[in-house]
Design brief:
This protein is an alpha/beta fold. The chain has eight helices and nine strands. The protein has a single domain, classed as P-loop containing nucleotide triphosphate hydrolases (Rossmann fold, 3-Layer(aba) Sandwich). Strand 7, helix 7 and strand 8 form a beta-alpha-beta unit. The longest helix is centred in the C-terminal third of the chain and has 21 residues. It is found in: Cytoplasm, Cytoskeleton, Cilium basal body. This is Ciliogenesis and planar polarity effector 2. It comes from Pygocentrus nattereri (Red-bellied piranha).
Length: 254
């Protein structure tokens, strides 16, 4: 697994705040709220605004109650349930996120298919974890800032689910960060974890009504590291042309 790339080294940081991006972000909004896309749907752009779509599978891992379903809803812009319930099986959701590549100013729509599986279902059915890991591109390991045990379990999850030889992007996400008065995880522990594991830790918490500000760092990092991972893989396979402006590193929806 490659080390994370520095933020903003491959894509234009905070591009979602620029006037240039508005026409692209309008395609994932409806009446100023996020559109809900089906598995086979994609944003339709006018001819003068070409943007290819690249697809990636993202598995959300974590103990029951840490907020896996809430994070998926937050990233997709969907309603977040007020009451916690255990995901009974496997749920998938789709997130579209446009970015601008720094090197060639090309705009891409990243299609993230999020996989969320309940912990009890994972334990009961042996095929669940292999299904989530099959052809996965990135894994988000979740813990709750209000549950220190979930943070201690992250290293075990990472060792159990992934192998150093896996070509997969790994991020850790701390949920319920807005409940800072009740936090059980300290900043020094977060810093130490990042130093030991070499994996960045993201924090989420607030309300989705505030726009893209909270979710943008995580979605940008996913896009940036997944694109970089594909380019590195293409280069090692003697196919450097895959990352040229006229091509992409995987199946493209035009």
């Amino acid at each position: 697994m490659a080390a994370p790339v520095p933020p903003g080294s491959i894509i234009v940081a905070d591009w979602h705040r620029s006037p240039e991006s508005r026409e692209f972000f309008k395609k994932i909004l409806h009446k100023k709220k996020r559109r809900e896309f089906g598995l086979l749907e994609t944003p339709v752009m006018p001819p003068h605004l070409k943007a290819d779509t690249v697809r990636y599978k993202v598995f959300i891992s974590g103990k029951s109650g840490v907020g896996k379903t809430a994070l998926a809803a937050r990233l997709a812009g969907h309603h977040i349930p007020n009451l916690h319930y255990e995901t009974t099986g496997l749920e998938t959701s789709v997130v579209f996120w446009p970015v601008k590549l720094r090197e060639n100013c090309r705009v891409l729509f990243f299609h993230f298919q999020l996989w969320d599986c309940g912990e009890n279902a994972m334990r009961r059915f042996d095929h669940m974890l292999p299904s989530c890991k099959e052809q996965v591109d990135a894994i988000l390991f979740l813990f709750s800032f209000t549950d220190h045990g979930s943070f201690e379990d992250i290293s075990n999850q990472m060792s159990r689910i992934t192998d150093p030889s896996d070509r997969v992007v790994r991020f850790v996400v701390g949920t319920k960060f807005d409940l800072f008065m009740h936090t059980d995880v300290t900043e020094s522990e977060i810093t130490r974890f990042q130093e030991v594991w070499g994996v960045p830790v993201f924090r989420v918490g607030g309300d989705v009504s505030g726009g893209f500000g909270e979710i943008a760092p995580l979605l940008n990092a996913l896009a940036e590291n997944l694109w970089h991972q594909d380019c590195v893989h293409a280069s090692s396979a003697s196919l450097p042309h895959v990352c040229h402006p006229e091509d992409t590193s995987r199946e493209v929806i035009v």
